[in-house]
Amino acid sequence: MRIGTWLQAVAVAILGLVLSGCGGSSADRDFGGALTIKLGDEGRVQVGEWNPISIQAAKPPAKAVHPEVIAADPDGLPVRFLLPDFKDGVSRGRFLIGQISSPIRVEFVPSETPDAAPIHTVTLSERNSDLRFLKPDVRLWGIFEPDTGLRSAIDKFVEELRDAKGADASSPVEVRSVSPTQPGDFDGLDALFVGADTLRNLAYGAGQTGDALKSWLARGGQLEVIARGAPADYDAPAVKDWFPIQVDAQSAPIRFRDLVILSQGVNRGLLRTPREGTPGVRMTASTGRVLATSLDGDLLMRAPYGQGSVTMLAINSDEPPLRDWDGLPALLAGQVDYDVKRETARQRTNLNPTGISDLQTQVLRTTNQFPEVSRPSYWSSLGLIVVAFLVIGPVDYFLVHHLLRRPHWTWFTLTAWVALLTFVGVSYANRTSGTVPLANQVEIVDIDETLHRVHARSWFTLYSPESQRVDITVDPDKTWPVRDIRDREVRWSGRPEAGFRGMHRPGGLSSGEAGYTLREGSDGASMIEAFPLRAGSTCDIESSWSGTLDEAQVAGELEGDLKSRFQGQFKVNLPGPLTDWFIAYGRFAYHAPLERRAFGIMTLKPGTCVDIKDLQAKMLGDYLTGVISTSQFRKNRVDSDYVFTRETYDPTGIEPYDIFKMISFYRAAGGKNFVTLTNGPVMGLDRSGVVSNGHAVLFGRLEIPASQLTVKDASPKLTAETFVRVVLPVRQIETDFSFPAPPK
Predict the structure, then answer these.
(1) Residue closest to 316 by CA, chosen among 368, 281, 366
(2) What is the mean pLDDT of residues 164-189?
């Protein structure tokens, strides 16, 4: 028997090899014998973020064929992403993956018969390819391909950071060489380093890359520009019309001589230049701040653009003396507000008893609260199990032996008890599980009055009392005056954790699970098709869209100096009342005082006008962390001491206002030191840099939602919470610290 079993196994293996060889020859006939599949950036795939994929066939297929990428979501369900047909032997698209180390399958399906079986399948995993998975909190810095000098400096900084953390630790920064040709090529980038000469080529680039660059920047991207090239690079209309930093290309360039004194970002603060000096450009900005200066002129300047920022270095980093300076990597890291000590400390792993380590997990925990579904606690379930054992055991024994005196009747009583307990359990489960589908929604709406744009990002949790398949779309609410709607997408949302339904746990791709499709509609908006809702369970969905405002939602004239002066008025014209609001600018938060005279502006109804001088000011960090000062008399009852207390952030809290306030001003509140949670997937929603770069941000709770959820064949009862952040332009004024003239 053992020999026979062994021979059968060998025969099955040989048959499998023969069949696989047949499949390979079919692929050779259809694709010319060679397929090149490129995932992510040189095989680096970021979990929870959009990743590019490029498939190239050595010979175009004879029939119309389109690839389909199948990757697991955080629950392990296979999600299908449809790529376009091959054009000139190439098909490009993007996909999401929700689990670390999960294999990725690529199927090639005939376009005329999409329901037919795939003609060829390729499975990619860490074992058979060069795939490397990155967690969602890893920062991606893009470098335009020709900038080899920048690449070597950034690579040196990342290497130093990895050495400081230890050989076994993963780096929180990954560097990616990019050559954008499509609008989606900027997805996932936190910062982009370019030279001034290549910036002009990028702005003039094909495939609307210039508009995509500005759109990415306006949503919170960080563009780092190195002064390099001819004066015409700064005067090019494609750059000059929107670039927030003005470069004086007409006057003589600066010659940085002697010692350049850096004011921020570098521990090694002295740089010795050649005797004849180092050439640089003269920079000015109507709004922004100088990060590094010298005895000869400004060296590093940052200016806001929408909700992002543009930082420019006045000296070419590819040439001496910066090229050979050991402080260059730290200087470039300082351009993107990267704190090495903070980022290194945040990677330390400690025992987390709550199972919550990131703000997005706290957001999804909030949306998973359904008061209509009163599920029993674990102790209640254990108690019911004990009651069932007591009924089937001692109670049934006492009944048939002492009351009925018919021990053999236990065959009938046991069946009756089991049926009764089953009926009670099912009835109780149906009563506690609800009878109608439910949905919770929280969203944050970014209104940029400097560029007249709006961007909404929403999180949904769906609950279904029965198993069904549904189609899910999200559209802008019609009450908002928005046009030119674009970048509409809906996708799954995951928790950056290693536990249940987390993206950090290793996963697999099972063909037996009920999957669904994430496809792009005819109008360019993505949708989820045939999503499997399971009875009594929840699913997490995330969506976003952008548009242009027909009219200003908050209009006013504000001016300040980023230090202590902030004045002016603004008028609110939002679709609904704004409550729990404050406005952040520079180092301070301004809010309505609690006196009776301020009751009229406690709630900003449409048409309300607010004067900054009527508001109460408090240090922004103190306001966010709830710092309160109280005076206590000493024993002599004459002198007093001030005692400062600070609130403690609750990582298990489910109040959306507190969560989104920390998401919006994470760094201003002290980051992980105060919040105790990271902000990996929502890192791009931090607006701390906006208020420190020269714009003001109005934050508050709005009663009118901006996004509308549509679930086909199931109309859930929706509960929504909406938060608004309005970026307001502030005219920068110079503070005069000069002494008055002495009296005559």
Answers:
(1) 281
(2) 69
DSSP code string of 35-64: EEEEETBTTEEETTS-EEEEEEESS--SS-
Residue type, position 171, single letter: S
User: Buried b / exposed e across 66-103, counting CB within 10 Å, b at 16+?
Assistant: bbbbbbbbbbbbbbbbbbeebeeeebbbbbbbbbbbbb
The answer to whether 122 and 83 have CB atoms below 8 angstroms apart is: no
Residue 397's H or E segment, with its range, is helix 396-398
Q: 699: which 2 tokens?
A: 């934050």
Q: State which of 141-145, 181-185, 345-349 shows the largest mean pLDDT.
A: 141-145
> CA 484, 489, 495, 496 torsion: positive or negative?
negative
Tell me: pLDDT of 255 over 80: no
Q: What is the bridge-based pairing of β-strands 270-272 and 246-247?
A: unpaired
Q: What value does the CA radius of gyration of the chain take, rounded to a whole number of Å?
A: 31
Backbone angles phi, psi at 204, to 5 degrees: -90, 0
Would you list the DSSP string of 114-174? Answer: TTSPPSEEEEE-TTTS--EEE-TT-EEEEEETT-HHHHHHHHHHHHHHHHHH-TTSPPSEE
Sign of the four-CA dihedral 336, 341, 347, 352: negative
Question: 209 near 179, Cβ under 8 Å?
Answer: no
Contact, 256 vs 276, CB < 8 A? no
CA distance 214 to 308: 10
3-state secondary structure of 81: strand
**Could you tell me if 51 and 95 are in contact, meaning their C-beta atoms sit under 8 angstroms apart?**
yes
- Considering only 323-332, 410-419, 600-609, which range has the smallest mean pLDDT? 323-332
Q: Out of 77-86, 232-241, 529-538, pick the least confident.
A: 232-241
Crossing angle of helices 209-218 and 196-203, rounded to 10°: 110
DSSP string, 168-200: TSPPSEEEEEE---SGGGGTT-SEEEEEHHHHH
| Structure tokens belonging to residue 457 | 């990002």
Which residues are CB-neighbours of 574 under 8 A, at least 6 positions away? Answer: 553, 554, 604, 606, 702, 704, 724
User: What one-letter code names the amino acid at 445?
Assistant: V
Q: What counts of helices (H) and strands (E) characterise the chain?
A: 16, 41
Residue 149 CA to chain centroid, in angstroms?
Answer: 30
Distance spanning both ends of the chain, measured CA to CA = 119
459 Cβ partners below 8 Å, 6+ apart? 363, 364, 367, 441, 442, 443, 493, 540, 541, 542
Query: What token pair was written down for 157?
Result: 């900084």
Strand partners, 724: 445, 700
Tell me the three state secondary structure of residue 451: coil
How far apart CA 742 and CA 739 sit, in angstroms, is: 9
Q: What 3-state DSSP class applies to 559?
A: strand
- Burial status of residue 194 (CB atoms within 10 A of its CB: 0-12, 13-18, 19 or more): buried
Rounded Cα gap, residues 198 and 252, in angstroms: 22
Taking only the tens place, the pLDDT of each residue in 195-215 is: 887 777 777 665 566 777 888
Contact (CB, 8 A) for 71 and 509: yes
